[in-house]
């Protein structure tokens, strides 16, 4: 007995429907995923350096990216933006931050006060988000202080050498002067003795 022709079509339609539903579910699950990669989670820097807080993310659509700074003084929002649009930078970091479409930011001329944790949050349009942290440690430049001490010591050595040279020259001049004086004194004494001999 042959199955009715409409049965095959229904099964094929049902199979295609299930397949389409699976593909849609997979896409939906894919679109809710945000991945975030931080190549350097800890950065050591010195004062006045420009620092790149480098990240990279992947997600569907254009996400919202937000950076916050946390330290012992509290939490502070630095910047928020969507790639391709103008960034909303906080007053405390105006002219000190540059944003990049991959989510990275650059801090210009960092100071010791910039030490702390920098938290990035990438939020997808459907609401899923991912966050990561970069710890920044900024220290004073010690070699500049050592450089100053070295220059100061070199200056003192140069002054000491100059004073020693002047003392040596003065000593030589004084010695020559005394020698001439003694010589003149000897000559005058000799002349007096000769005069006394003549008078006698």
UniProtKB/TrEMBL annotation:
<dbReference type="Pfam" id="PF11465">
    <property type="entry name" value="Receptor_2B4"/>
</dbReference>
<keyword id="KW-0812">Transmembrane</keyword>
<dbReference type="GO" id="GO:0005886">
    <property type="term" value="C:plasma membrane"/>
</dbReference>
<dbReference type="InterPro" id="IPR024303">
    <property type="entry name" value="NK_rcpt_2B4_Ig_dom"/>
</dbReference>
<keyword id="KW-1133">Transmembrane helix</keyword>
<comment type="subunit">
    <text>Can homooligomerize through cis interactions within the same cell membrane.</text>
</comment>
<protein>
    <recommendedName>
        <fullName>V-set and transmembrane domain-containing protein 5</fullName>
    </recommendedName>
</protein>
<keyword id="KW-0217">Developmental protein</keyword>
<dbReference type="InterPro" id="IPR015631">
    <property type="entry name" value="CD2/SLAM_rcpt"/>
</dbReference>
<keyword id="KW-0966">Cell projection</keyword>
<keyword id="KW-0472">Membrane</keyword>
<dbReference type="InterPro" id="IPR013783">
    <property type="entry name" value="Ig-like_fold"/>
</dbReference>
<feature type="domain" description="Immunoglobulin">
    <location>
        <begin position="40"/>
        <end position="139"/>
    </location>
</feature>
<keyword id="KW-0732">Signal</keyword>
<comment type="function">
    <text>Cell adhesion-like membrane protein of the central nervous system (CNS) which modulates both the position and complexity of central neurons by altering their membrane morphology and dynamics. Involved in the formation of neuronal dendrites and protrusions including dendritic filopodia. In synaptogenesis, regulates synapse formation by altering dendritic spine morphology and actin distribution. Promotes formation of unstable neuronal spines such as thin and branched types. Regulates neuronal morphogenesis and migration during cortical development in the brain.</text>
</comment>
<dbReference type="GO" id="GO:0030425">
    <property type="term" value="C:dendrite"/>
</dbReference>
<feature type="signal peptide">
    <location>
        <begin position="1"/>
        <end position="28"/>
    </location>
</feature>
<dbReference type="InterPro" id="IPR003599">
    <property type="entry name" value="Ig_sub"/>
</dbReference>
<feature type="transmembrane region" description="Helical">
    <location>
        <begin position="146"/>
        <end position="170"/>
    </location>
</feature>
<dbReference type="InterPro" id="IPR036179">
    <property type="entry name" value="Ig-like_dom_sf"/>
</dbReference>
<keyword id="KW-1003">Cell membrane</keyword>
<dbReference type="GO" id="GO:1904891">
    <property type="term" value="P:positive regulation of excitatory synapse assembly"/>
</dbReference>
<keyword id="KW-0325">Glycoprotein</keyword>
<dbReference type="GO" id="GO:0030424">
    <property type="term" value="C:axon"/>
</dbReference>
<dbReference type="GO" id="GO:0046847">
    <property type="term" value="P:filopodium assembly"/>
</dbReference>
């Amino acid at each position: 007995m042959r199955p009715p022709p409409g049965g095959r079509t229904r099964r094929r339609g049902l199979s295609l429907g299930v397949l389409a539903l699976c593909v849609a579910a997979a896409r939906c699950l894919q679109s809710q995923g945000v991945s975030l990669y931080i190549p350097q989670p800890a950065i050591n820097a010195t004062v006045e350096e420009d620092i790149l807080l480098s990240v990279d993310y992947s997600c569907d659509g254009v996400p919202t990216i937000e950076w916050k700074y946390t330290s012992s003084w509290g939490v502070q929002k630095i910047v928020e933006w969507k790639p391709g649009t103008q960034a909303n930078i906080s007053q405390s970091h105006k002219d000190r931050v540059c944003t990049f479409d991959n989510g990275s930011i650059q801090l210009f001329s960092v100071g010791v006060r910039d030490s702390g944790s920098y938290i990035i949050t990438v939020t997808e349009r459907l609401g899923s988000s991912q966050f990561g942290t970069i710890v920044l440690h900024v220290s004073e430049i010690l070699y500049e202080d050592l450089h100053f001490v070295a220059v100061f010591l070199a200056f003192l050595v140069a002054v000491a050498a100059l004073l020693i040279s002047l003392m040596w020259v003065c000593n030589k001049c004084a010695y020559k002067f005394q020698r001439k004086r003694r010589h003149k004194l000897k000559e005058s004494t000799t002349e007096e003795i000769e005069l006394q001999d003549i008078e006698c």
